[in-house]
Amino acid sequence: MTAQRHAGRLSVSTLIVLAAVAAAVGLWAGSRWLGAEAARDLPPLRNALLYPQPRQVPAFTLHTPDGATLTPADWRGRWTVVFFGFTHCPDICPTTMATLKRVWDRLGTEGRTDRARFDFVSVDPERDTPEILARYVGYFSPDFVAATGSDEQLTLLTRGLGMIYARGPLENGTYSVDHSASAVIVNPEGHVVGLFRPPFEADAIAADLATLMDHAR
């Protein structure tokens, strides 16, 4: 994300920081709950933080570049990692996507990709056309799923998952988008169970996913 230069952008950034702090408090509580109740069954996680209880995914409808729809039903049956970003993002998004590619490659060597799914959801539908979105996500992996939708649907989904995004003011004919940098973890039952938080480490994320696949109930 670009440096903040205007009061309007500063307020957006402040909102994101406050949201991140609130999420961190909730996740800290979740870690304490898990430590007390589930440590016997679930080995320590290296990058993931889990919520105290699974959360429902709100009803939503997005669209993939090939014209198909993406709904909560698509997040059932596998461990799904969902990252929100935009293709014009100069740093956080490409770095995160490159890390997730390494995670995917490691899961592939372990024969686990049939139990995992990675989705990139663009929060910049105006610029991220189907062609641009497909090309961007395909660069990292043809197995990754790309989707976007209206601001109404994106706001409903991001808020329901504890994420946030906001577009900055127009500058020199363009704009940037502030967004949460964490990746959401959805279990095979289609419930949100936690987050992967930056800084992301491919080996740690892959190991955590393997742990969840093998031990979580």
TrEMBL record:
> Could you cite one Gene Ontology molecular function of this protein?
metal ion binding
The protein's name is Electron transport protein SCO1/SenC
Q: Which UniProt keywords apply?
A: Copper, Disulfide bond, Metal-binding
Per the UniProt entry, what species is this protein from, by scientific name?
Answer: Dokdonella koreensis DS-123
Please give the family membership noted in the entry. Answer: Belongs to the SCO1/2 family.
Report disulfide bridges, numbered on this chain. Answer: C89-C93
Q: Name one Pfam family in it.
A: SCO1-SenC
Residue span, Thioredoxin domain: 51-217
Q: Where does Cu cation bind?
A: C89, C93, H179
Q: InterPro entries, per this entry?
A: SCO1/SenC (IPR003782), Thioredoxin-like_sf (IPR036249), Thioredoxin_domain (IPR013766)
